[in-house]
Each structure stands twice: as C-alpha cells, then as structure tokens.
Design a protein that fits this description.
Largest interface: A-B, 103 and 102 residues
Radius of gyration of chain A: 27 Å
Helix content of chain A: 25-40%
Radius of gyration of chain B: 24 Å
Shape of chain B: globular
Helix content of chain B: 55-70%
Structural class of chain B: mainly alpha
Number of helices of chain B: 20
Strand order of the largest sheet of chain A: 3-2-1-5-8
Structural class of chain A: alpha+beta
Number of helices of chain A: 9
Order of helices and strands of chain B: HHHHHHHHHHHHHHEHHEHEHHEH
Largest sheet of chain A: 5 strands, mixed
Largest sheet of chain B: 2 strands, antiparallel
Distance between the termini of chain A: 54 Å
Shape of chain A: elongated
Oligomer: heterodimer
Number of strands of chain A: 10
Chain lengths: 349, 617
C-alpha cells in the first residue's frame, strides 16, 4: 500500500505546517474565540469536526481494508468474484446512522441560530449604526451623538447591537475572534450583536467582494472596560471641532484642511455622516486607511496619492492637488486630534 | 457517402468535417478539446492568483487585474471547463451505453456545442477589449452593476450564449435517454453514468432558466437602464443572489453527479463486481438532485434572511449528507470482496473517495448556519468547494478520460505517465487546499488581492502556492501523455478493461454508426452477462439492415457565429448606435439559418446493408 503511505505523509505534512503556523494571529483568528458569537460558532465547529472525523475514520478504515484485502493478486487473473446485488441490512445501517449524526448536529445549530438572532434586549444595550463604504466603516453611536470611523470602541461583557447598512455595494462585517460575519446590504438594515469577553484590539475585515480594495477594508474593534468606555464616550462628546491646535504647524495644517476643501467630505466632531470617514479621533487611530502603521510618513503618502494605497477609493481626484509640504502640515494637524486617553494602545496593553 | 469515405484527407477536409459534424462522437471530441482549452486557461488564471498570494503584500498583479483573474478563473472553470468536459464524456459514451446509434437530435447537439464555444470565446475576448469581468463569478449586484467598462457585459452575454448551448445539450440527452434505449434496456438496467447523465440533464433543464432570467435582468440593468437591482430606484440586490443560487446550487450537482456515475462504472469494472446497491444508488442520485434544488439559500446564511430561513436551509442542506453517504458506502461495498486492479483510471477513482469525503464533510460543517458565520466567504469555503469540484468533478473528468480514452480514440494512454500525473496532482491538490481550511478560520477572507504581513497567514499561503504549481506540473504530464499516445500509443482492443457495459461491445473507436445491429439487453451490465453466460458478445435485437444517418451541417456553426457577432453588437451599442448594425447582422444571420433549417428537407442518407456486411466484425 504505497499509495496510502503517501497520503498519510501528506496529511502529516499539512498538520505539521498548521502546528508551525500556530492558530494564527491572536486578535484575528476564529480558532481562539474572545467573544460570544465566536464562541457559539466555535462550539459548533468543534462538534461538527468531531462528527466528521469519526465519519472520515470509518470511511478510510473500510477503504484501506478493502484495498489491501481485495486487491487482485498474482495468479488470480481469471478469478471472478461473487456478483453481490446489495444488502438491505447494511444499506439501512448506513442510511440510519448518518440521519442520527445529522440530527446531532442539526438541533444545536437551530438553537444557536435563534440565540444569535435574538435582538429583543437591544433597547438596553449600546446601539451602533454601522455604514459600510468602499472601503471604510462608519460608526454612529445612537443616542450618544458620537460619529467615528474605522476604530469601533465597545465595552467588554456587554452585548453591543449593530444596525448595519451599506452606502454603495454589499459589504460583510467580520470580526473573527469576537463574532461571525453579517452582510451589509444597501437596501435593508441587518442587525447583529457582538460581545467581547476580554479587553483588546480585534481585527475586523470585510468579507464580501466590494471592489479593487476589498482586501484592504480592515477596521479594529477596541474593547475596553465599561468604565473606560464611559470615559471614552464623555471625552468624545466633549470634542470641540473648532478648537485651535497648540503648535503652529498643526495650526497651518488646520487652515489647509479647510482650504483644500477636505471638510467637504470629512467631518470632525459629531456632525452627521459625511462622504468620507469622520476624523474626530484620528490621532488615536490604530491604523491609517485601515491597515497602515499610524505615522506621519504614511499619512503624507496617503494624502498625496490615495490611489497607490487603496486602488479604486473614492477620495482620489476629489480634492485639489496637495504638495508634500502641505500634506505634512495637514498630517501634523490630523495626528494631534486625540480627544481621549482611552486609545487602542491602552486597550491593547 | 460510404464507409470508405473515412480515409485519410487533407487538413481542410478534416476541419470541414469537424465544423459540420453531427456525429455525437466527434462532437464529444470538440467538447473535450474546447473544454480542455478553457481548463488550461482557467488553470493559468489560478496560477496567477496563487503567485500573487505566495507572500504577504505582494505586488505581482494589480488589484483590478486580480479581481478579473478570480472572476474569470471561477467562471471559466465552472461554465467553460468542467461542464463541457462532462458534456464531452456524456456525448462520447452515453449513446453507446444505451445501445443507440446517435443522440435524438444530432443537429441540436452540434448547435449546443458551437453556442458553448462561441459564448466562451466571446467571454474571453474581454481580456483584449478593455478588461475582463471583475465582480466575482457570482457577479453580485450592485457591484456588478457598478463595474466600469464592458467586462460584466461580456459576462452576461457570453454566459447567456454558452448557457443556451448547455440547455440545448441537456434537453437533447434527456430525449435521447427517454426514447433511444436499445431493446431490453429498461431504466433500471441503465449504467450509472447514463443514469447520472439523465438526472444531470434534468438539473440543467430546471436550473439554467433561472440563470438565463438573472443574466437578462443584469444585462437590462447595465445596458438599458432598467432598475431591477438598483436600490435607489426601488430595486433589490438580494434578488440577484436568490436567482443566481437557485441556478448556482443545482449547478454544483450538475458538476458532481456525472462524476458519481462514471466512478460507479469504474469501481464496478475494476473490482470485477456489479455495483453494490444499484437501486439505492439510482434513488440516491435522484434524491441528491431534488435536495440540490431546495438548499440554495445556504449560500446566503449571512445575508440577513433571519433565523427561520437559516434553520430550514441548514437542515435541508445537512440532509444531502445522507444520500451522499449511501453512495460512498456502496462504492466501498462494491470494492469489498472484489478483485481490484489498479490502473490510472482506477487511481483517480480511488483518489476521489478520501478527497470527496473531505469536501462533503466540510459541506455539512458549512451547513451548520452559525458555524458558517465564521466560514462564509473565507478560505474555508474556498477549500471546501475545491475539495468538491477538484476532488470530485476534476478527478471524475480525469478518471473518465483515462477510462474511456481507448473507446474514444482507439489508443490507450501511457500508464506510467498516467500514474505519475495522478500522484503529483493528488499531492499538489492536498497541499494547495487542505491548509486553506485553516487559513480561512485564521482570518483570511476569500477574494483577497493581498494579505497583510504579520497576520499568521504567510506559511499557509506559501504552501498553498507550491501545491498549485505541482498541480500544474501534473497537467503538463497529462498533456505530454496525450501527445505521446497520439504518436506512439498502444492500439486499443474493443474491450481493454474487461468491461461490463455496452460501449465495450463495439470496436475502439466505434464506427460512425455505432452498433451495426442494435444489441439486445438482458440485464444490468449486459456485456458482462453475455461474457459470463454465453458467447461473449451481444445478441442483436434486429436483423442486419440499412442504417439511416443524418446529414452533416454547417448551419449550427454559422448560427452560433451570428449570435457571437450580435453579442458584440449588444455590448457596444451603448457606446455607439452604429453597433446596432452588428446586432441586426448577427441575429439576422441566425434567423436565416433557422429559416433554412426549417424550410429545407434534410433526408440524410443510408448505409447499405451490403456495405455493412463487407465490414469485418
């Protein structure tokens, strides 16, 4: 059975590779759940994997024995095996057992489906209106007058209700280590709740093909303790969008920001959703454009040529040309927008 | 024309012969060559995708081009490679298995092929005319509506033309199986491959109209300012997903059922046993097909249909595991107690069992709606459907090609190269896709042009790319094998594998009239019955007499060319009205062809009894 040896070696190699790679990055992988939705999914994943490994083992055992025992041997060229029509008992067995296995999986699946769709307590929790855009996320904290984007602050140990709609094409919001995904459609509000069990910064992704920069439509969920969350809310509510920056370069940047009609698309403070991301807490953001390290160099690059960073984005070409000098000043202004001491860094610890 | 006319001719005559042929065996060659060409194209696209993902933040191809690659890879492999290759095998073998002289509608058979071919060429012209479609093979609205350029227009029209060809092919097979079985070939004596051809054709008949409707709506939204999917004007984008998957889910079974059928034939032939639980296998096939229509929304668990719909579709989907399980165990029981010989055809069948079992099992895992909230649109799904479509359909096609190559072309593929290709492909395939289950759960969504550094996804993607190259190497070996066999291959006898079904009762390759005398079928595995009980060849059901044959015709080719030209007209008329000329010219040509076909009598011709007698057995 040379063949089987190779298959086994192959699986071994694959498993080895998995072990080497670990279970993935801790704040991204669904295999180490840190939230209610992800845990419920993980339980079903484990249950179904167990059932399937059992089935696979049975199939492979029968398969290997059949191949070893009944392979044509030398001197058997003219041997004709008995022509068996079938066997009612056997066939009943392998009909009934799969039905039982399916039931074992079906019952908890249905229970979990209804459990995760339960929105009856949404009035008590934090409600956030999420808007998916090519290629960024907008968050509007209902009743709190807070508009933000890209970094989603939530309190730990509480169900946070998301009411999601898209402004353009279909997106899908996915935070693997906290919760499964839900599509964000242009025509109807989809609801889901997320609940993080531990503080931390979790990576969120868009899972539905939405254009060239689909793979760069990342965001972060910043889970902080309920007290810190309250602090963050009050900090955000007290932002004065008109506040003048302390240092001179940032001051110039603020003027340029208005001059270059950046304000046409972006907003600072709690004014309603605009075409582009709300920049109130830009200096605290964990990433620029969802995935770049937050430093001035990257921000300057982004302002000068967004197309080279996120192909197909809607910022490109919608504002007057900016020199490198000007971009630096604008960056200085944006990077000092730090309304709160509660930041991804403090949450990430 | 007499039998002697099938002599050596020039290339022009050879080409003309294939352009005008209505012989199901030659149309099978066309399908295999056409489908094979697109298979290579889709494979090259796959390699581009995997090269781009060999390392994090790679810049091998641009974001836009990447989306074109994934869209065309999926579309090509499903519509232009896997399905036509199966249609080729069905065309070559199914009429022989039921003891027929041809299919029911030879002219339509040719039309079906040429529509597929021109549709596929039209779709691929987009590469050279400003960009291929880029909204994914599923072309979800509104992304597909908003996609700039003409890429998605090529998708709607190309698939519409190719899809019409497939629909015609399916109807033709249905009528053939219903009306043209040889005496004694009752439904419950048909070989499993014929059975699955039959059930697949039913699926085509019911599934393709949903695609046709969807494509029309999409085409009208893009070209004629309708608003079926435009939310701002009261449209609904989720409707597209329903229409697409009402077609798309049965499509999966269109791709896998023929493989189930031919594996059944192969397991029974190479185990020297009749198929275990034949009746159960037939009913499992029908049940799978039926359930296949009832579960489309499991592609939409995350769309927001609510817990009731998600639960119903979850359970219905899991139910498919039961008939599929019956099949797997019946195949194992077929081998059990047999006398198993292993050659390259059997190797592909043996490789299929573990591969497809994994694919089927991850399918049940996906059916668990809440678990799917994690799997959906990730590499877990990519891994799952490649285990089904490669581990099932592609292994099936390759097994079928190795198994029936002698019958189709009169030569046996080289065993050494066949086995080498199998092992390299099997290893490459598992390297590529097994690890993707984990990549998905580790946070890698599908259709990602780049993955970021330091997310724990590097090793998995690297291994995956290496595997893809191994698969490429195996396909090259297969091509070399085909060329080698054409030049130096071993001549095949009528029945090289000690076969059981009717196709092995006539010479390899079969004469163009198939059976000199229609065979009398006395049971399941008719040839086997004759070999074990009697004289080793089929008893004729009729005296030797004249055989009526249909005329060849160039009309299907010209008609399809007409639709091809009209397709360009439709696509470009939005830019300039002058292109309407192409629409009128193309549709006009097709209509004139139809008129000629309707008004002119085609009497066909007869092969005289005396000529047949002169042919040696």
């Amino acid at each position: 059975m040379k063949g089987m040896g190779k298959i086994k070696a192959l699986f071994l190699l694959s498993f080895l590779a998995i072990v080497l790679a670990g279970c993935g990055k801790e704040n991204l992988t669904a295999l180490v759940p840190k939230g209610t939705g992800a845990e419920t999914s993980m339980n079903l994943i484990l249950l179904s994997t167990l059932v399937m490994v059992f089935v696979f083992a049975v199939v492979i055992v029968v398969y290997v024995i059949a191949l070893v025992r009944f392979r044509k041997k030398k001197g058997q060229e003219n041997y004709i095996p008995k022509q068996v029509e079938g066997n009612k008992t056997l066939e009943t067995v392998w009909t009934v057992i799969p039905i039982i296995l399916v039931l074992i999986l079906a019952v908890p699946t249905v229970a979990a489906t209804f459990e995760l769709a339960d929105m009856s307590k949404s009035g008590d929790g934090v409600n956030i209106e999420v808007t998916g855009n090519q290629y960024w996320w907008h968050f509007n904290y209902k009743g709190e007058e807070i508009q933000t984007s890209q970094d989603l602050y939530i309190p730990t140990g509480e169900k946070v209700y998301l009411n999601m709609i898209s402004s353009d094409v279909i997106h899908s919001l996915w935070i693997p280590s906290i919760s499964g995904k839900m599509d964000v459609n242009p025509e109807n509000v989809n609801k889901m709740y997320i609940e993080a069990k531990e503080e931390g910064v979790y990576w969120g992704k868009c899972a539905e093909l939405c254009g060239p920069s689909h793979s760069l439509m990342d965001f972060k969920v910043v889970a902080v303790s309920p007290e810190e969350f309250d602090q963050w809310v009050s900090d955000m509510q007290n932002v004065d969008p008109k506040a003048q920056p302390q240092d001179a370069v940032a001051q110039e940047g603020k003027d340029l920001f208005e001059e270059k009609s950046c304000m046409g698309c972006h907003a600072i403070g709690s004014s309603p959703a605009a075409v582009g991301p709300n920049l109130t807490d830009f200096g605290n953001r964990s990433k620029i454009a969802g995935f770049l390290e937050p430093n001035e160099e990257n921000l300057v690059k982004w302002i000068m040529d967004p197309e080279s960073i996120k192909p197909g984005n809607k910022m490109t070409g919608n504002y007057p040309a900016v020199s490198e000098e000007e971009a630096k000043k604008i960056s200085a202004y944006l990077m000092q927008l730090k309304p709160s001491d509660i930041t991804p860094e403090s949450a990430g610890k | 024309m007499s039998i002697a006319a099938t002599q050596k001719r020039g290339f022009g005559a050879f080409l003309w012969d294939y352009l005008t042929t209505v012989d199901h065996k030659k149309i099978a060659h066309l399908y295999l060559v056409g489908g094979g060409f697109f298979f290579l194209l889709g494979g090259i696209e796959a390699l581009f995708i995997r090269i781009q993902l060999i390392k994090p933040e790679n810049d091998f191809i641009s974001a836009g081009l990447y989306n074109e690659m994934i869209t065309m890879h999926g579309t090509t492999m499903i519509f232009l490679a896997a399905m036509p290759l199966f249609l080729g095998l069905m065309n070559a073998i199914m009429p022989l298995q039921i003891g027929a002289r041809d299919v029911a509608f030879p002219f339509l058979n040719s039309l079906g092929f040429w529509l597929f071919m021109f549709g596929g060429i039209l779709l691929n012209c987009s590469w050279f005319l400003g960009g291929a479609p880029d909204a994914g093979w599923t072309s979800y609205a509104p992304l597909s509506i908003q996609s700039p350029g003409h890429g998605v227009d090529f998708y709607t029209i190309g698939l519409q033309i190719a899809g019409a060809g497939t629909l015609i092919g399916g109807i033709n097979f249905l009528v053939t199986i219903v009306t043209m079985r040889a005496p004694g070939m009752t439904y419950m004596r048909m070989p499993l491959f014929t059975w699955t051809t039959f059930v697949t054709s039913v699926l085509i008949l019911f599934a393709f109209p949903a695609l046709t409707v969807g494509l029309f709506l999409l085409m009208f939204d893009r070209m004629f300012d309708s608003a079926f999917f435009d939310v701002a004007l009261g449209g609904n984008t989720v409707i597209w997903q329903h229409l697409f998957w009402i077609f798309g889910h049965p499509e999966v079974y269109i791709l896998i059922l023929p493989a189930f059928g031919l594996f059944s034939d192969i397991f029974s032939t190479f185990s020297k046993k009749r198929l275990f639980g034949y009746t159960a296998m037939v009913f499992a096939t029908i049940l799978i097909a039926f359930l296949g229509f009832m579960v489309w929304a499991h592609h939409m668990f995350t769309v927001g249909l609510g817990p009731v719909a998600n639960s119903i579709f979850a359970i219905a989907t899991m139910a498919i595991a039961v008939p599929t399980g019956i099949k797997i165990f019946n195949w194992l029981a077929t081998m059990w107690g047999g006398s198993i010989s292993i050659n390259s055809a059997m190797l592909w069948a043996l490789g299929f069992i573990p591969s497809f079992t994994i694919g089927g099992m991850t399918g049940v895992m996906l059916a668990s709606a809440v678990a799917d909230y994690q799997y959906h649109d990730t590499y877990f799904v990519v891994a799952h459907f490649h285990y089904v479509i490669v581990g099932g359909s592609v292994f099936g096609i390759l097994a079928g090609i190795h198994y029936w190559y002698p019958k189709m072309f009169g030569r046996i593929l080289h065993e050494g190269m066949g086995k080498a290709a199998f092992w390299i492909f099997l290893i490459g395939f598992n390297l590529t896709f097994f690890i993707q289950h984990f990549l998905g759960l580790m946070g890698m969504p599908r259709r990602y042009w780049v993955f970021l550094e330091d997310q724990g996804l590097d090793t998995g993607n690297f291994i995956s790319t290496i595997g893809a190259f191994l698969m490429g190497v195996a396909v090259i070996i297969l091509l070399i094998n085909i060329i080698y066999t054409a030049v130096k291959g071993e001549k095949a006898p009528a029945d090289p594998w000690d076969g059981r079904t009717l196709e092995w009762a006539i010479p390899s390759p079969p004469p163009f009239y198939n059976f000199k005398q229609t065979p009398l079928t006395r049971g399941l595995d008719p040839l086997w019955i004759e070999k074990t009980e009697g004289k080793g060849k089929m008893t004729p059901a009729e005296p030797l007499g004249d055989i009526h044959m249909p005329d060849g015709s160039i009309l299907p080719f010209i008609m399809s060319l007409g639709f091809f030209v009209a397709g360009f007209g439709f696509i470009y008329q939005v830019d300039h009205n002058a292109w309407l000329l192409a629409v009128f010219a193309g549709i006009g040509t097709a209509l004139i062809c139809m008129l000629i076909r309707s008004l002119k009598d085609y009497h066909g011709y007869h092969i005289k009894k005396e000529d047949l007698e002169r042919e040696a057995d």
